[in-house]
């Protein structure tokens, strides 16, 4: 049995490797993977709508995490909140590029939107591993008094180095 995947095979598939154990965060991360996958594979005519959907998702995603950090005085929150803001700024810049694009530059701006989606695909695993996972542990500890136990399905084993 394969790990659960999104409906867009080959674009950006969900992997249980991304599970961090704090359920509300894992849910929002599944949505993130699905929406970035949609942007990678969106037909040209749907790129703007797909990018707008991504921006709306990221607003909610980052606001939720920022609120968890602020409400619980999560100690290393500033760099995490700053990274969210930097990503949001890039997304807003690409949105305004697409909004301004004339027919002659449409192909360039479409390529930029897809590049943004691919950059987010590359960015997410590191952000999740280094920043979101610490927040997930923190939130689980506060809510349940311990670190999360994460059950990941059917991942290939890697030899330790
Ligand atoms: Fe996140
Ligand atoms: Fe985050």
Which terms would index this structure?
Four Helix Bundle (Hemerythrin (Met), subunit A), mainly alpha, disordered N terminus, 0% strand, single chain, globular, binds fe (ii) ion, 161 residues, 4 helices
Question: What report would you give on this structure?
Answer:
This protein has 161 residues and is mainly alpha-helical. The chain has one domain (16-144): Four Helix Bundle (Hemerythrin (Met), subunit A), CATH 1.20.120. It is built from four helices and no strands. The chain has helices at residues 23-41, 47-71, 77-100, 106-144. Helix 1 runs antiparallel to helix 2 (47-71), helix 1 packs antiparallel against helix 4 (106-144) and helix 2 packs parallel to helix 4. The radius of gyration is 17 Å and the shape is globular. The two termini are 28 Å apart. The structure holds fe (ii) ion (2 copies). One fe (ii) ion (FE2) is lined by residues 65, 80, 84, 127, 131-132.
